[in-house]
Amino acid sequence: MSTDTALAAVMAAAARPHAGAIRARFAEDPARATRFTFRAAGLTVDLSRTSLDDTALAALHGLAEATGVLARRDAMARGEAINATEGRAVLHMALRGTPGVGGSAETAQVAETLARMRDFATGVREGAILGATGERFTDVLNIGIGGSDLGPAMVARALVGPGDLPRVHYLANVDAHAWAALRQNLDPARTLVLIASKTFTTQETMANARLVRGWLAAALGEAQVSAHLAALSTNAPGTAEFGIPPARVFGFENWVGGRFSLWSAIGLSLALGLGWERFEALLGGARAMDAHFLHAPSAENLPLLLAFVDLWNGNAMGTTSRAVLPYDERLCRLPAHLQQLEMESLGKRVGLGGALVSHATGGVVFGEPGTNAQHSFIQMLHQGTRVIPAEFILVANPDHAEAASHRILLANGLAQAEALLQGRDAPSVAAEMRAAGRDAAQIAALVPHRVFPGDRPSVTLLLPRLDPASLGALIALYEHKVACLGALWGINAFDQWGVELGKQLAGPILAALEGGAPPTHPATAAMLAAIEALQA
Ligand SMILES: O=P(O)(O)OC[C@H]1O[C@](O)(CO)[C@@H](O)[C@@H]1O
């Protein structure tokens, strides 16, 4: 079957009467909740509250076959250059030691870097590696942006506890307010600075690196600076030019994409903050999800099934965004990580062959932890004119002793999913208002505003506990979902040419801000003039 025919079959499944109904599917199939709940690598994922049914799934499996999703997965594991526009392999699975991924060269490289990371992190944590003044490092500052920030910062926020030492901090934005906020809590004598940049050329990261290097030099003296620096990069000449001794450079290869790099040397801040055992457990969780992705049959393959949900909701049901709602405050940076992972990977309009695709691709990802989200944007999910699928992430066991708080948290997460599904019709709203003593006029006026349409899709992911293994598995699940969606949509999920133009244009505009020739575009020139007038 051609991919066009297969996609047409998916659209035909969506064109059936009531194809978007969800409540009715529970009525038809009492076993739906269990039949549509899947387990892998310790995670439980409930897809029952989507409008997927056997017909839709059959069409989606047909599309997976036509687009060769699993063949692409296997090519990825073999280390073929599936990132064709950059001529690169995509081997982040090799970073977690997943058997059958990459070749012996990659395996050896990963093992060597991991050993160096372990020795360094352990040395710092145990006080064998000290700052220039002989003090222990109490703080680690990771300077990086995008994939060199978001993944590690998200994991650190999730797993590094208040009692962990060294503390880890993340500086991403070139806006020096970010640095000003961080530096007031940092003592240069006790701060280890990691410059995290795959390319070691990213303008913002290098500007921040120079700023922080100057801060170290002013406090400790130029000769002492290198004792406080390390680089995480694929660019050995660049790190040398910056004055970082080779022993303090932790490398990786260009087969690691930025948004997939937290498992590589880019994760050194995590090894420092969590300790080696917990960092290894994070890799282990991802490895378990890799094994599932590589070996589970299609019908149970969670990354593939989650990709089906997104494709069904987006292409077949016409939704354009998705809300990620972790009911765990420690996962507050997960939506930001997923924004890069999914939107940088899947925000593409050109297919693998170079022609424009004729179907929609990746949508908007946004989110906030619950219950906070319930008191901000979730109104729109319940009653807005646009359908926005939701993704609830629940954690069964908290790491605090406040059982009552956790029960409230869980109850709210479960209730939101149920409310989106069930909705509330006019007769039941009217009955409730009558019971509350409202008169007929009030009931007539308010009922339409208080109706919930229901049948709004959601997925629930359940973690036993927010520990390194579960989080590793969760992140890997999303990574593999992205790979599947790229294949299903026929796009390259592993490049990011769309970030280039803005970077290029910033060069001459910066020169204009520094007193050079004015910008050529009239709108930019006018705004620059307005800025300069306000700065005068
Ligand atoms: O690690 P680097 O090379 O500094 O790049 C940082 C980020 O910039 C991007 O290239 C986008 O500008 C991301 O893909 C990447 O994660």
List keywords for this structure.
3 domains; Rossmann fold; single chain; alpha/beta; 22 helices; globular; 536 residues; binds 6-O-phosphono-beta-D-fructofuranose; 11% strand; SIS_PGI_1; 5-stranded parallel sheet; 50% helix; 6-stranded mixed sheet
Helical residue percent band: 40-55%
Cross-sheet strand order for the largest sheet: 1-2-11-10-8-9
Bound molecules: 6-O-phosphono-beta-D-fructofuranose
CATH topology of the largest domain: Rossmann fold
- Based on helices, strands and strand pairing, what is the structural class? alpha/beta
Uncertain runs = none
Beta-strand segment tally: 11
What CATH architecture of the largest domain do you see?
3-Layer(aba) Sandwich
- Main sheet attributes: strand count, strand direction, barrel closure: 6 strands, mixed
Query: If you average the pLDDT, what whole number results?
Result: 98
Regarding quaternary structure, how should these chains be classified? single chain
**Fourth-level CATH superfamily of the largest domain:** Glucose-6-phosphate isomerase like protein, domain 1
Number of domains: 3
How many helix segments? Answer: 22
**What is the CA–CA distance across the termini?**
66 Å
Shape: globular
The level 1 CATH classification of the largest domain is: Alpha Beta
Radius of gyration: 25 Å
Beta content: 5-15%
Family: Belongs to the GPI family.
Organism: Plastoroseomonas arctica
Pathway: Carbohydrate biosynthesis; gluconeogenesis; Carbohydrate degradation; glycolysis; D-glyceraldehyde 3-phosphate and glycerone phosphate from D-glucose: step 2/4
Catalytic activity: alpha-D-glucose 6-phosphate = beta-D-fructose 6-phosphate
